[in-house]
Amino acid sequence: MPELWQLSIYEAADQLRRRELSSVELTRAHLDRIAQVEGRVKAFVTTTEQQALREAERIDQRRGEGAQLGPLAGIPFAIKDVICTEGVTTTCSSRMLERFVPPYDATVMVKLRQAGIVMLGKTNMDEFAMGSSTENSAFFPTRNPWDLDRVPGGSSGGSAAAVAAGQAMAALGSDTGGSVRQPGALTNTLGMKPTYGRVSRYGLIAFASSLDQIGPFARSARDAALVLQAVAGYDPLDSTSVDTPVPDYTAALTGDIKGLRVGVPAEYFVEGVEPGVRTAIEEAIETLKSLGAEVGECSLPHTRYGVAAYYIIAPAECSANLARYDGVKYGYSTRNHAESLIDFVMRTRDEGFGKEVKRRIMLGTYALSSGYYDAYYLTAEKTRTLIKRDFEQAFEQFDVLVGPTSPTVAFKIGEKVNDPYAMYLNDVFTIPANLSGIPGVSIPCGFSDGLPVGLQILGPSFREDLLLRVADAYQRATDFHMQWPALPDAKKAARKRG
Question: At what angle do helices 9-17 and 23-41 cross, to 10 degrees?
């Protein structure tokens, strides 16, 4: 018998519905799991134990009164600390917002609360979602449950680690250049980026507004379908939200992909992909073939320019979005003496922002400056159009595209922190989907030297149902997503790290 924290959402929902399990019991099991492993994993910035238990009790009471509740009612969730939660600190893992308590819920939180979820807490991240390892948090790095000396990916590393370690049954993250999919791949969880405009960004603290998208972490496609169903849909509070029908995602999980046209981009199998990652991806593609998919090679020729274009566009947008943090309106204010207002703002931003955030603000400000706008930002936007056209042409021939999510497995903490370019290359296969706005999902597909490998599936805009169908069919044929990390004994782990 699995532990309660090892149940899938579907399994737990069935037991809750039949009154074989209470929401309080399920919540306590996850709180106990947090108490057991959080000291080593460090997935959470804030835990909300008492609030969670109250929410669970409320769900049990409603269920006892005969209320018709959905499948997420009473399910323990973790929320990335970039999503506003009314009355609960939302820090973006930055000193700049260390004491910020939002007076409102983000739209996704409104929807999840309506669905009856139990929020366990807010998860650690790279500061303002800028990073690929969760080492850029102003508070502490999160560790990968599969190897505590390695990163969980980023920027949503805390959410990924929480689900991977059994501390939450599902989580929300945000994906600007791969920040849900890449940590999903590195932690053996499913991480999904919906189409830009499918999920409301209202209440998501902005990094790069034309790229950011909220997405779920879960252990299976079936569970992810339930979460996406709850949060997807048009929101008049978000001007980038698209008013298009939301399909029944669970109905798409037929297990049948016979005749599905699967494209394999040649540019996703280049130098730099680790041999173990390549082998796992090739074996996953063979599994899709065995399930009846028609696999062929395709080309996305402008992929090579994706990282360069992204690191002009994203910093440019971040430099504008983060200009509001001046120490006057809200957020951190310097306590040191300032000679003038300008000096006050400069001191505040210097003390409140971390190194990576400062780096990207400077890059973006430079790219937007007079005399350089056309050479950098405008050229990057033109490149973005070419990348989008590559995908449009590929989807004329294929239903979905597959390849590695990350070129490597999880790397050691500290290994790349002083080499920004090497860090940025971790997102080489995930960035193009953000630049073009299409949906993508990473699913567990094997291991290399005991560390997880993720298969990325990309599809046309607003075809999340198709991606989940492929992911579900693959997971029915494999058991990688059902494997758990063997977190070492706390005392042994402490001795190992010295």
Answer: 150
